[in-house]
Specification:
- With about 180 residues, the chain is of the alpha+beta class.
- The protein has one domain.
- It has 4 helices and 12 strands.
- The strands form 3 sheets. It has a 6-stranded mixed β-sheet. Strands 10-9-8-11 form a 4-stranded mixed β-sheet, with no helix packed on it.
- A hairpin with a 4-residue loop joins strand 3 and strand 4.
- It is globular and about 50 Å long.
- The N and C termini lie far apart (about 55 Å).
- The N terminus and C terminus are likely disordered.
Length: about 180
């Protein structure tokens, strides 16, 4: 709606903000330029700013294909990470596809990130206390590097196979003691 006040024009947006209802185990569809991919919301992680833990599935589907929820959830998981699902829906990057039992047992999934200010690694499982290490212990070397990734970074990971800015992140973490 445009309002005119003398020389000034004011635009007022009366659209309601989209309300996103999500449940644990919801599957989301992401339409990419050449295919569709899916991820599953596994839980909110209070250890990392309440980020939503998602499992990104490896499989790519034809744009006109409608796979069953079971087929999607049985697929291999490419990566686990944290993001904000609601904001991704609001941006139109993904939409809810359905709900099915969890694809993975998160008790076996560890996350890590490097905290530059403290010069240490934080390692944790979702909703558990962070552990700090100067060097990554061998049993955590294969844990997933994660931060609270913006939805556009997750979309970039689905399209190009790496997070937006991952080249910078990778070169940075390679210079650190492991």
């Amino acid at each position: 709606m445009l309002l005119y006040f003398g020389q000034s024009i004011i635009f007022i947006n009366f659209e309601k903000k989209m309300r996103v209802y999500k449940r644990i185990n919801d599957i989301y569809e992401v339409e990419l330029p050449d295919c569709k991919r899916y991820f599953q919301f596994l839980q909110s992680d209070s250890s990392l700013l309440g980020g939503h833990v998602i499992a990104i599935f490896n499989n790519k589907y034809d744009k006109f294909e409608s796979p069953s929820l079971d087929d999607i959830a049985k697929g291999a998981v490419e990566y686990y990470c944290h993001t904000n699902i609601n904001y991704g829906v609001e941006l139109g990057l993904w939409k809810k596809y359905g709900n099915t039992p969890a694809c993975a047992d998160l008790s076996k999934v560890y996350f890590k990130n490097y905290v530059d200010e403290k010069k240490c690694w934080h390692i944790w499982r979702a909703n558990e206390e962070l552990q700090s290490f100067d060097e990554i212990p061998d049993q955590f070397r294969d844990s997933y590097i994660t931060y609270l990734f913006p939805p556009k970074c997750v979309y970039h990971k689905l399209v190009y196979g790496k997070f937006l800015g991952q080249d910078v992140l990778s070169s940075f973490t390679k210079t650190l003691k492991r």
